[in-house]
Specification:
It is a single chain. By secondary structure, the chain is α/β, with parallel strands linked by helices. The chain has one domain: Rossmann fold. Helices cover about 45% and strands about 15% of the residues. It has a 7-stranded parallel sheet, sandwiched between helices. Strand 2, helix 2 and strand 3 form a beta-alpha-beta unit. About 40% of the residues are buried. The structure holds NADP nicotinamide-adenine-dinucleotide phosphate. NADP nicotinamide-adenine-dinucleotide phosphate binds next to helix 1. NADP nicotinamide-adenine-dinucleotide phosphate (NAP) binds next to helix 1.
Length: about 240
């Protein structure tokens, strides 16, 4: 029986690349999505075309606690096992202190920190049984906050702390690690050229990363047998220059 992985927010962008990479490495993949049903179906068909019955899509709004528990249950039912969880889904937008609302706090904290925690909790018994692994997709700005993005930075700092906490608590059965991307894909919201240039000027390797850089790192962490509680920055050297 093939190993199975649940990747959240996997219909597009970095999550889709993680799903494709793990699928190519032999995993059956559960592709979670919230709104992007079209791209999720296209990806599911593509992967099932490569290997029959190797990909399933599941919809869930991670802001709803009941959806989170249901997602875990449905993911295990897909092939009767889950060996790995990749917490990739995320909300991302600026929250200037003068304008931030409680609703924004709730969305960012609940999507980026609470949902990964409760999804990990719901899947912990299954992952322990399978000697599985969790990878959290964090951000270099978890530890060095991005100006104007305090709530997003807080949410990712919480996810980084959770990575270490659960690595201790779920050992020796389950390994828990994080990947901290730098500038990989530009946000979908408008971003002017000057802002992009400013970000690029602070990256020693002078370029953005590719989604596959994150996906390959996830694959490496899932495959390692003696790494837990670690955060691997994939950022072209950006975090050397804070
Ligand atoms: N892009 C970068 O350069 C960069 C840099 C640093 C860190 N990261 C981290 O890397 C990961 C992937 O980045 P990305 O840019 O590919 O992410 P993204 O496109 O901003 O978001 C990924 C997915 O998260 C899902 N999502 C958002 N809110 C949700 C909710 N309430 N419930 C369920 N799903 C929800 C969305 O699914 P639907 O579309 O289906 O609604 C979305 O497609 C994220 O954790 C991000 O913080 C990315």
């Amino acid at each position: 029986m093939r190993r199975s992985v649940l990747v959240t927010g996997a219909s597009r962008r970095i999550g889709a690349e993680i799903a494709c990479t793990l699928h190519a490495a032999g995993y059956n993949v559960v592709i979670h999505f919230r709104e992007s049903s079209g791209p999720a179906r296209v990806l599911e068909d593509e992967l099932n075309g490569r290997r029959p019955d190797s990909a399933r899509i599941l919809q869930a709004d991670l802001l709803q606690t009941a959806d989170v528990a249901g997602l875990a249950e449905r993911a295990v039912s897909a092939w009767g096992r889950i060996d790995a969880l990749v917490n990739n889904a995320s909300a991302f937008y600026p929250t200037p202190i003068a304008k931030v609302s409680e609703a924004q706090w709730d969305e960012l904290i609940n999507c980026n920190m609470k949902a990964p925690f409760f999804l990990s909790r719901a899947l912990a018994p299954e992952l322990m049984q399978r000697l599985g692994s969790i990878v959290n997709i964090v951000d270099i700005h978890a530890l060095r906050p991005r100006e104007g993005f305090s709530v997003y930075s807080l949410s990712k700092a919480g996810l980084a702390a959770m990575t270490q906490s659960l690595a201790r608590e779920l050992a020796p059965s389950v390994r828990v690690n994080g990947v901290a991307p730098g500038a990989i894909l530009w946000p979908e919201a408008e971003m002017d050229g000057a802002e992009r240039e400013q970000i690029l000027s602070r990256i020693p390797l002078q370029k953005t990363g590719q989604a596959r850089d994150i996906a390959q790192t996830v694959l490496f962490l899932l495959g390692s047998d003696y790494i837990t509680g670690q955060m691997l920055s994939v950022d072209g050297g950006r975090s050397l220059c804070f």
